[in-house]
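Run log, item B.
One chain of 432 residues. Sequence copied directly from the ordering sheet:
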Amino acid sequence: MPVSAPRLWLASRLFALLATVGLIAIGMVTTTWGAHLAGNPGWSLPDDMWRTLTAARRLAHLDLGGLYTQPTGLVGFPGAAVILVPVVAVMDAIGLRLGTPGSQSTHGAWLVAGPYEIALCGAALFAADSIADRLGADRWKRAVLAAAGAVALWSVSVRWGHPEDAVAVALLLFGILALSDSRPRGSAWLIGAAVAVQPLVLLALPVVLAAVEPRRLAGFLTRTAAPGAVLLGAAAAANWQATSHAVTSQPNWPAVDHTTPWTSLAPHLSNGAVAAGPARALAILLACGCALIVARRRREAEPTVRSTVRPTVRSTVRWSPEELEELLWWVAVALTLRCVLEPVMVAYYLWPVLAVALVTASVSWSRLASTAIVASALTFVAQASWHGPWIWWGSAVTGLALTLLAAAPGASRPRPARSGSPAAAGPTAPGQ
């Protein structure tokens, strides 16, 4: 019997699949039975996820006005709740309550929601493996990438319970992969879905736009904006005050999480919170500087490609692995800006940088090994509860800088012509 396309795809992503299954197994054991071995009388559950599950349940019941009201704590786009609607529907069907975080009433909900949300996070491992395959990494490098990616992903999935971060980065990586294969429409929709799930990927958007052909920019931006605009517009129409306050101010609590040198400069809100929105807007502005560098480097690398391609033939220029690798590294740099400027930090904020840096380094054993070691160490060091505005933040930023340095592409390596360009493929025959 012929093998179906989905089975073939899963077989080609074997290491990502194994890493995801392993993460689910380890995550469920450590949060339940393992918690008792560590002397914890209760289960070590990611309390943050319960807020998003509450938002998902309200969304499933069409209570759009309640998406941004307590106790959801939602400050991003509604896509974070959308991705959890299926598991909430299952829980409703079998009569499971969400319960109060930290209480035994959450145990049943975790046994259903836990594997689902960790599996959702595993999408990032599949995206990383797809790009590593496109970059030309061999099977053993991809196996190491999957293992290192799962270690770093533990912070987001098992420790903190934020599948929206992992899903958004996965969609971003798939979108960049589509763009590198000359599929800008698909890329725009994927990145738009990523923004709708977690707007942190807006930091990467200027860098991606630097690689989009100017004539396609308007359509690309329109498609990218559409998913988030539709979801956010629906929530705002149902409850404008709560939605606008949460999305624009984006409150965070320095008494709960890690302060940084910028905490005192952030606007102070009620209940001891500070507004992270202004710092995140500044980070996006600085990411535009990264985009200018990327645009200039791309122009300098291939100044004649577009002028030699026949205007009557639709462009099917496929990026070289080196071009894709370089863009990914600049995406990691742009994502780092959030961690540098954030007034209040949480350990899982570091993960997007680590995920993109790991896949960028996947083509070289030396780079992959050093990046994996630094990323794994930083993942666990970041769980420390150090206080003060400098020690934790300084350690995290230093770790991210070392990660970027370890993953940086070789500057002296020659860049071959793009697949599909005249230099790589020769003259284009009429009708091709």
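Observations after the first pass:
- The beta strands are 251-252, 258-259, 274-275, 344-345.
- The radius of gyration is 22 Å.
Flagged for discussion on Thursday.
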